Amino acid sequence: MTNPRDLARSIGHQVSQSIGRAISEAQRHRPLPADLLESDEAYLAVVDAPGATASDVAVRVTDGRIEVQIDRFREFREGFETVFPGRALALDGSVELPPGADIDTDDATARLTDHGTLEIEIPKVERGTDVPIDAGDADETAADDESGFESIDDGDDDSGATGADAATDGDDAGEKSDD
Length: 179
Fold this sequence. Notes:
Belongs to the small heat shock protein (HSP20) family. By secondary structure, this protein is of the alpha+beta class.
């Protein structure tokens, strides 16, 4: 007959393993915690990846999202047996980019930091191009006027006299012809 204490320990051990597996599976299906940062040049996703090595991680960038899969290996400790496997070995998830994000997937980079985070940087596609202006003859015309603006010819041939000056000049010319 089995000792009641040993039976209780055995049942407790099996329950702990079952609970540990359930927690590990729940963690696997939980959304991957991540921060998404944005600069003028790129997006940066920061994902927790404790205990992962580069060979444990797969990153794929598609259709406005960053997909991350982490399959870690649980280390065995000599002289110890796992009683409660509570840490998930596999973490899967994705990080959504903002709608309309125009990215350059070919130049995306990912790196694991020493403190257990995965940093994925995806450059933005530069839209628009600065177009040089060919000044041509406009430089010579603009140099004649200090303001940088060309004078506009209004069609009068009165040598640039303004409206008041033109009226006076016309009156003076009329008076001289009477004498």
